[in-house]
Amino acid sequence: MQLITAVIKPHMLDEVKEALRGVGISGMTATEVKGFGRQGGHTETYRGAEYQVDFVPKVKLEIVVDSQDVGKVTEAITAAAQTGKIGDGKIWVTPVDTLIRIRTGELNADAV
Amino acid sequence: MQLITAVIKPHMLDEVKEALRGVGISGMTATEVKGFGRQGGHTETYRGAEYQVDFVPKVKLEIVVDSQDVGKVTEAITAAAQTGKIGDGKIWVTPVDTLIRIRTGELNADAV
Amino acid sequence: MQLITAVIKPHMLDEVKEALRGVGISGMTATEVKGFGRQGGHTETYRGAEYQVDFVPKVKLEIVVDSQDVGKVTEAITAAAQTGKIGDGKIWVTPVDTLIRIRTGELNADAV
Amino acid sequence: MRRKVVAVSLVAMLGSLLLANPAVAQDAYEPTIQDFLDNTWIVIAAALVLFMQAGFALVEAGLTRAKNVANIMMKNLMDMAIAFIAFWAVGYAFAYGSDAGGFIGTDLFFLQDSSTYEGGLTLSTNFIFQVAFAGAAATIASGAMAERTKFYSYAVFSLVMSAFIYPVVVHFFWGGGIIADLQIGNAKFGDFAGSTIVHSAGGWAALMGAIFLGPRIGKYGPDGSVRPIIGHSMPLVITGVFILFIGWFGFNGGSELAADLYVADIAVTTGLAASAGAIGAVLAIAFKSGKPDVGMAGNGLLAGLVSITAGTGTITPLGAVITGFLGGVLVVLSVLFIDNKLKIDDPVGAISVHGVCGVWGTLAVGLFAHHGDAFVDAAFPLEDGTEYTSSGLFYGGGVNQLIVQLLGILIVAAWVLVTTGLLFAAIKATIGLRVSAEEEMEGLDILEHGAPGYGPDVSVLA
Amino acid sequence: MRRKVVAVSLVAMLGSLLLANPAVAQDAYEPTIQDFLDNTWIVIAAALVLFMQAGFALVEAGLTRAKNVANIMMKNLMDMAIAFIAFWAVGYAFAYGSDAGGFIGTDLFFLQDSSTYEGGLTLSTNFIFQVAFAGAAATIASGAMAERTKFYSYAVFSLVMSAFIYPVVVHFFWGGGIIADLQIGNAKFGDFAGSTIVHSAGGWAALMGAIFLGPRIGKYGPDGSVRPIIGHSMPLVITGVFILFIGWFGFNGGSELAADLYVADIAVTTGLAASAGAIGAVLAIAFKSGKPDVGMAGNGLLAGLVSITAGTGTITPLGAVITGFLGGVLVVLSVLFIDNKLKIDDPVGAISVHGVCGVWGTLAVGLFAHHGDAFVDAAFPLEDGTEYTSSGLFYGGGVNQLIVQLLGILIVAAWVLVTTGLLFAAIKATIGLRVSAEEEMEGLDILEHGAPGYGPDVSVLA
Amino acid sequence: MRRKVVAVSLVAMLGSLLLANPAVAQDAYEPTIQDFLDNTWIVIAAALVLFMQAGFALVEAGLTRAKNVANIMMKNLMDMAIAFIAFWAVGYAFAYGSDAGGFIGTDLFFLQDSSTYEGGLTLSTNFIFQVAFAGAAATIASGAMAERTKFYSYAVFSLVMSAFIYPVVVHFFWGGGIIADLQIGNAKFGDFAGSTIVHSAGGWAALMGAIFLGPRIGKYGPDGSVRPIIGHSMPLVITGVFILFIGWFGFNGGSELAADLYVADIAVTTGLAASAGAIGAVLAIAFKSGKPDVGMAGNGLLAGLVSITAGTGTITPLGAVITGFLGGVLVVLSVLFIDNKLKIDDPVGAISVHGVCGVWGTLAVGLFAHHGDAFVDAAFPLEDGTEYTSSGLFYGGGVNQLIVQLLGILIVAAWVLVTTGLLFAAIKATIGLRVSAEEEMEGLDILEHGAPGYGPDVSVLA
Ligand SMILES: Nc1ncnc2c1ncn2[C@@H]1O[C@H](COP(=O)(O)OP(=O)(O)O)[C@@H](O)[C@H]1O
Ligand SMILES: Nc1ncnc2c1ncn2[C@@H]1O[C@H](COP(=O)(O)OP(=O)(O)O)[C@@H](O)[C@H]1O
Ligand SMILES: Nc1ncnc2c1ncn2[C@@H]1O[C@H](COP(=O)(O)OP(=O)(O)O)[C@@H](O)[C@H]1O
């Protein structure tokens, strides 16, 4: 099993979710995160004083999948999350030893 | 060392925390997340218009443990987080190369 | 590639961010989390009733780096995040199979 | 612009319901400027009292959880709306209509009035001021019943409360009923602005509601341990307290029912008691738990207000400070006792603030009554022939005033506890009173009202 | 402390702009206590109406998203400030200055007045009360234009609205212009406190603004599907509704322009209509969608208020309940129709509450007008020679009143739709009306005003 | 209901403290309707001014961080409560008691008054209005001392401020003390509603508090760089501003101390100056930083209000617009200067709004005084024998008025700076003034008051 972690632009979440459904993904976990990267942040002014905001809002998706599905899933995400503008985000894939479904105790593939 | 990631129902957090304490876990990191899965979401209506909410609130727990403890920890979580209803969540286990305690620089087992 | 996950005290975020910039890190993802550990929580009182708060606010940083950079990055974080007081946090390092830049589809080192 | 007299006289000629008009019959008597002043002041006071509804809503919303915030606001909005219609249709009639057996009024339904205006407050003025009180009486229970009551069931309660239960209480006293007739020696029952008539009545209803509902899930551990459920917003609470504070100047000051020089005296005792109550509560809670709890400070200020409401017209400034301070201390002890000992779950302390302090404030008249107000006769001959003393125990008035106060309190308590008890039992047996456990956990906003009180862009948890 | 008369007479002597003073010329006539009472009441009423600005701000803020909350609050703050200056400089003059062709006023600029006071309301009193209405008229559009309008462009709109467009509407009727001259049989146009003059005028501007802007990104799917955009805070919405509710007692009650006994009658019809409106809307939306929507309940209460604003002085309590209730039902149907069928994006329902219910309330006078108010003549001879009936259709007054009401509505609609249409077109063609898509997505707070409306320590999402 | 005269005359007979009653001695003189009207209006005005306390609380809460929100609300609630008790016990006496050396009052403690009522405002009316001012004066410093002051230490400050420091300032002028005696040529000091007496006094205390506390952690970098600390809620800020705005109609309008025709004139200058202030500040900050900052717009409106407070009775509408506009510009420059140059950390801009603009507004009287008010004599013979001119420099009144204004400002500044300096030094040396660095970082809500101001279900960060 593998864990696919994708950091995307918040407003792309719906598109990505639909894309994942399209490739048969039935489950995922989303987290609101803040990203620091090439995209850079922006300057804000409060009561006349300027300040720099380095972290921009992003959404992180975690999806545990069967190793053989990794390719299609990452492609689906890439396709759906791409705006072409800097800051589209990253995907990284990490190995998973075991996946357990709490409700049933099922393991790995059965637990997805 | 291994990293145990568990996604559970928010109101089970206390029970799970106590269960983990019970098996000698002295540290963990919790994150508010939103989950998409078989449980499905629900429909809401606002000013007469219906809309679908796909993501339901969950809590994600991350616990780095000695490899030999993985079994008892996952069992403890499964036992404590189980309601038997769809949506109880998942646990996945991933390998950890190194664990460092920032305060002391201690490594791995000593850092837990 | 490796994924470095660091859980630090919230008010150390700026220092750590600068330290990472210092060692040439150009990207990271931050999440607000709550930590349970040796630091313990604190007691609060509301309308005369005492209660225990076990989880304390922390910030989790995730940084995917070239394997060869792991050492300097973890050192940079440790150095910057250390206050010496209990609760400074942890760093754990996990293997990454692939890193993808969504915008370009670039892989691994090129995607950082 | 003043209207042609013809309009007035015309109006005076009309009778049937559809033609009803509160301004009816102003032809006989030529209103004086004092009439205009009195009526204008009372309308302004009514607006201040109606504003208190927002204060109740905010205090209750702030002391409960984010997942139920829309439901709480909605309850406070709708019980005011319901009270307005119900009190217009029948409530005002039950309260102030021609007395039947000292128990209930029998005319003035839909504000139909055949009498002619002879100065003082018009029917419209009386109604707009009294309906604001009805709304307050109904909404008090809302806080004690928060976070677990079905919306429609609450609406039914507030309808019956403002249409019948509260109006009858009003009739007992202000309507010239059985409590107005109470007399022991020369002492007659005194409750100037409603410590008993409005607040304790609401408090008893709140008590019954909380008992019938039972505590919120997780409030008391299986081992009987008490678990605080933290309110989600102190800024909402304290803003609500400030609104209630200024609204109370209309509540007490308007109860003079005239724009005379006593209004300012009332404002002074009202403000002093409120302030002393806040200070008393802060000292008490800090003494108990080591911390000056913010919500308790708010409860304390309200406790001071409720405590002085009965005696605001008859108690001196110093008496007001003492009454309010003790009210503030009392509310803390009461909240802790009800929560820890009785294990009745009252999320906002409504029972303590309105019920317990309503009782205390009414008794305080028996202790501190100093000069006469509209009800308390401060001067009368004593057994020993001496004259012109105050009726309060501490001013040599003896215990008569205290006893008569107690009697009034008990009558109201009995009436409200019984009627609301029957009402809640009936609701429970029919449409049900409490939401499902699952709904309670997810929050009432989504399941009762369809959508969260805070949008998806605001991170709040269930 | 009362001032030396010398000061007064001095003032009376001054003319030039720099020396202008609204208190001018109070030497001739010796003011009576009734004058003092009337003026004092109207100043208090003005404060209540000005407070409504906070209500508008909170309702609009709560029904929109957190990322735009500072922008909404700012718009409501600044359009009041702009209205004050603009209405003082020219607006009041256009509205109440000496009539030119029934269209516009031509003097009283900068409140320069050479006439002498002869009792009633002073120029200052009239101004402070009327400027509060101007602020309200201007701010109504703000909600319909929320979350996508450039701040400076909105400021320009609100300047022109309060300086010219609205004042002309006022002149049409209250200023003695063309609408005041309307007459059909004995029926003259009646709009006591501004269902048409203030609310529908604001509603038409809101409609134009929403059309020129187009819907918010994501509001309507490419397939034409309707996607709700959830408001971020119901507590803000309902708090705003409560503030508007009590402010309305100043709005309607103050429109009597005197402290007489009718003020209380007006307060009664106002409160009843508001309550019936809330109940009507809750029943309607619950029937439509199965859930008692909280925001809709708030809209319903406001709808009841807007609906009774025209007839508050001439409609009976029962008439007010019916008018308000139907207003509440209507606002729900209208919101759904505008959103689902017309696909005009009005985030807060301003077009329905103020426009549609403003029209309904004005027509309601034609149906329910019962006794006379400052404008509606309740008594006149009918063809058949009978006398002294009411002008409302349901009271045997025939259709004349209804027709004249309709004419007034149409004149205002035509004027406001045309002028605001031209205005928005001009703004769009010059400085632009709508923010960039990127800004809209990130939120107006940061890009228009520099910083988020909720600080970085409060987790809200774009 | 009006009370039996016996009650009154009884009251008149009582003397001792326990028997004290502000209504004392109304038997001699038969109050007129004007008396009733005046007293009623001032009680209403007092309620409006007391409501301002909520406005202060919300503005301060919104401009600071979520972790300290309960503490800020609590401070504003409790300093009002403390002010009430302290001003009743001794404050009012020090302010308005029989003069001793032009410095302080010496009787009326606990509102004990042996004099008989002879018309005008009663002691109760005067007290309720003046105590509201005392609360305001005390609470101004709260904002400048936000996010780092120990709760109990702040309580001690506000006790001394409202019991002694502020009352003495009042005595200096309104109490007939040294400032009232100032005269240069024919010019006497003028401060109608308290630009200097209330606002600059509060502003100076705020300045001292901020200096003694030092800046919040992280406000200024080691390199002296200035780091903005973003307020957590603009909706709270602007809601507070609206509340302060309408409260100010009571603040300024009530200061006429009578219900006469000048009240409306005052309302006009008050509203115009506030609006001009908001516009001035928005233009100034947009010019400075390119963005119309929302908090600054709020500060600007308040700056306009503070600026016109001294001259509201003597300045023309145009003068008010100029005074308010410049106040709005000034507040922006002052905030930036204090923050960037002086590096004094005033989280809400209290020093600039109340201190700086309080001074400006007082000086503005010297420039724009046009007609007479209760203090400024607008008409007097000039050297050249001409008569009846205004005292303002711009109206040919020469510099006398300006100079006397300056003297009054300096006296108040000296008194407040010295006394609050000693007070803060004493507090610092004893119980300590500032919380620990750790507490400051975690937030005052949990460590000072026991629990967070926003519940655990609301995600806010330390
Ligand atoms: N090395 C990294 N480790 C973890 N997350 C990263 C890393 N680099 C970037 N990110 C995440 O990806 C987001 C987008 O990256 P950025 O460099 O801004 O643009 P792009 O994705 O186009 O390269 C960042 O906001 C951050 O959340
Ligand atoms: N493949 C997955 N990868 C990551 N998280 C998942 C995955 N599937 C489910 N989850 C998480 O587990 C939660 C529960 O899963 P769900 O399918 O709803 O019920 P169950 O756990 O009973 O199978 C989801 O809400 C989601 O947060
Ligand atoms: N075993 C663990 N797995 C995951 N996170 C942990 C673990 N132990 C501690 N943490 C995280 O590290 C934080 C600090 O740990 P703690 O034991 O309190 O102090 P220290 O870091 O000094 O040992 C905790 O709040 C928690 O977020």
List strands and helices in order, with pairings.
The complex is a heterohexamer, with 3 copies of chain A (112 residues) and 3 copies of chain D (462 residues).
Chain A lengths: L1 E7 L4 H10 L5 E9 L5 E5 L2 E5 L2 E10 L4 H12 L8 E6 L2 E4 L6 H4 L1
Antiparallel strand pairs in A: 1-5, 1-6, 2-5, 3-4
Helix pairs in contact in A: 1-2
Chain D lengths: L4 H9 L19 H30 L6 H28 L2 E2 L3 E2 L17 H22 L6 H23 L4 H4 L1 E2 L2 E2 L6 H19 L20 H21 L7 H28 L4 H16 L7 H25 L8 H19 L31 H30 L7 H6 L1 H6 L13
Antiparallel strand pairs in D: 1-2, 3-4
The structure holds adenosine-5'-diphosphate (3 copies).
List keywords for this structure.
heterohexamer, A: 112 residues, alpha+beta, two-stranded antiparallel sheet, 3 helices, elongated, D: 462 residues, mainly alpha, two-stranded antiparallel ribbon, 62% helix, binds adenosine-5'-diphosphate
